[in-house]
Amino acid sequence: MVTLSWALGGVLLLLVAGAATAGALSGFHQSRPIVVAAARAVLQLAAVSAVLVAVVRSLWLSTVFIFVMLTVAAVTSARRVTGTRLRSSGGASSAARMVLPIGVGALPVVGLVMVTGTVPLSGEAVVPIGGILIGGAMTATSLAGRRLFDELQQRRGEVEAALALGLLPRDAVLEVVRPAAATALVPALDQTRTVGLVTLPGAYVGVLLGGGSAMQAGAAQLLVLVGLLLVEIVAIWVVTEQVARGHLHRP
Fold first, then answer.
1. Which one, 9, 44, 66, 210, has the greatest CB density within 10 A?
2. Tens of pLDDT along 31-43?
3. What does pTM read for this prediction?
4. Which residues make Cβ contacts (< 8 Å) with residue 221, sequence separation at least 6?
């Protein structure tokens, strides 16, 4: 368990300072985004921790919280993929469209583990599992979407050549972007292949810290990893179809 102390605060400040310094010295110009992200994480986790104390006691409130996470994930992914903010022109529309790949990927898996009793039907179990799966779907959607638009921009001539040969617009786009979209699954594949050998992910460690056995921790982590593979490949598939059909646009 992490001890809440002044030492923890000092370590966190040193880590953020180190990351911001590296962001400046590397020439990546990411110092400010790193500091802002860290500050937001502190504020958001403090607020969410206070809310979750009440939320996890009720299955209905936990379900509502899952949909709040889905909404935030969609807004975040829309900003990453299309470059539009919620208040900007088209921002709300882009966020609404991002609900589809993230929701279609994550919600059925969350429902499956709840209905089958694989995890306890309680807020303490539903919220963490839902958060992990929705987060995975958001990351995969953002990575795939950005890669798709970049690929289309760089290979526009190939799409036009495919159209000239008689392919439908959707088929012409898919011919170019499918291999690029598949690369968004690489992080989930690598994590699953190397689990236990390179890393011990959060679900495993969480069960151990909660008093569970090593076998229970392994089973929980396996459920999460396999679930993420399904969640992310479906999310990537859906966002690829959205781009190919012209339902998503980058200004």
1. 66
2. 999 999 999 998 9
3. 0.81
4. 195, 200, 201, 203, 204, 207
